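USER: For my understanding, would you kindly supply a protein sequence with its structure tokens?

ASSISTANT:
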Amino acid sequence: MMNLLNYILWDPDLIAFKLGPIPLLGTIAVRWYGLLWVIGLTLAYLVVKRLYKEQKIKDEYFDPLFIYCFLGILIGARLGHCIFYEPDYFLTSGKGLIEMILPIRLGDDGSWLGQTFGFHIIGYAGLASHGGTLGLMIALWMYVRKTKLGIWTVLDNIAIATGTTACFIRLGNLMNSEIIGKITDVPWAFIFEKVDAVPRHPGQLYEAIAYAILFVIMWTLHKKKPEKIGTGWYFGFCLTYIFTFRFFIEYTKEIQEAFEASLPIDMGQILSIPFIILGTYCMIKAKKKA
């Protein structure tokens, strides 16, 4: 019989801090999830900026990169969640389509916005990492068409920094008590009190640690092998590492949507396979080129 006193009770406040009151909008609550997203993106921004300086790439090419990456990740992650995980809600009504595109929920929640305009701001409640990765790749393709930089140089630089953003996004999931793991009796199990009262694998923490290790590996390798930047090897290694780990860590997670119960492997694993194949291909191609 499980002794629940031996496990980690997890019930953090979702709100990191509050801003306001702001005229018309009232008090705005800044959630840990959004804050950690911003921290992760900012760290990646600083890492890539340093890489550009090391490679003597002009500042005029770096300046628009953050906007391309931010919009690509956000739009891709949002559409990925809505299309792959909740299509019945977001793709079957005008209300769903509006809520898919805008960070709002239609209806009156008692706030000034809700009472006056019939909607309230909730942020994007639902983002998928696979969609974010695909959105980022499309955004970077658009970026290199604009700047005329080498696509593999840009992809390798972004790949070296990716572990920082991925780590903080998963810490945001942990603060939200979402994407929870399966029931377990391991001594480091978390009891997500917002969900239930049983010990579960902290899958979000597993991933956050793995992505922090990825950044350390990538940063160390780029210092030893800077000549590989521009071959696509770092990009390939990043994809292969992240999505291979993601494939196996899914075995410790609960399914996110009911329809996944009828699948031989869950949606996260299905979506990981193409990225693993692409990453492996890029690494092999880079090795042959070398």
